[in-house]
């Protein structure tokens, strides 16, 4: 399949002006490879891995280097009791420190117990699965749009074929009436009526051509295909094959439902992360530093100039126990709980909606099958009436009005049949979607 698609893409790349045969299968596969929506969904899956790595980093040691250089133009003085220096009853004002101070060192922090970190790690797998399901849903949405637009374009092209055929037939009638008029066997008003009808048909043709161009452009946009590409649609793609009416699908296997359930899992984890605010946290911190002090800038200075360097280090165990947060944590927990309950209502509503989609699609399939058979018979009868009326007109047994009415009825019957097939095809896409089988259109 990939090889066929690659050849198809290369063909487009070599000559955008050449016509390309485009089946529905080709169209949806091309869209999945090129449409921005599908690409962005895959990027979100990739980005979810980086989000997971960010969460995991909170459980790993945090190591950093630090350094500083400080100049004190005026050193703060401290007032102390002179008794400590053998001068009882006096007060000494002393300055502690040096004009220049520089430090450099390493620090390490390691979380030992943090409930929010543990909850985030447990939610990592669910986060990945959420974006994977979202990618699948995006692909299904792309397939549905492409399929519906594909059939809409095909119907407009079928309408144009019918109008072209009707124009040619009317042109033949005009030639007959022209000959009769030249021989004095027809009135000028009859010839004018034929000419007006041809003009109306030609106007309809121009309108349909414009609709074809607009809908083709929309189809190419939904596919991510260059607008200038010329496409041809095989007639076989529009054949009506009664859909396989299987048992009622399991709504809980639908992508839309699965995505909401994953979102519910994430909201539950979010609530647990907020509840972690009730738990104490325990962490380990350590640092090792060098400090240089003196009357000159310590860098590269020696003790002879009064600059001295020394090292110091510290290891600490940090415990934080929340006692009262002004009910802020409780409010956040309740907000998270409301979000879960809101989503649960959405899940119930979505189940009803998906079930409705399936039942409506089934009803439309059955109704459209009946309509197609009725319109097929109407089309056959209209063509038969048109043929008989044309023969009667040539033999002088029918009026021009009868002939024009028969042509209009035949064209309307054919258009009604084409619309019925389109409605069936769109209902077929809805049924395939309601069964969660849109990806089958790519095979």
UniProtKB/TrEMBL annotation:
Belongs to the outer membrane factor (OMF) (TC 1.B.17) family. This is Outer membrane protein TolC. The keyword Transport applies. Residues 1-18 form the signal peptide. Residues 333-382 form a coiled coil. PANTHER family: OUTER MEMBRANE PROTEIN TOLC. It is found in: Cell outer membrane. GO terms for cellular component: cell outer membrane; efflux pump complex. One of its GO terms (molecular function) is porin activity. The keyword Acyltransferase does not apply. Keywords: Cell outer membrane, Coiled coil, Membrane, Signal, Transmembrane, Transmembrane beta strand, Transport.
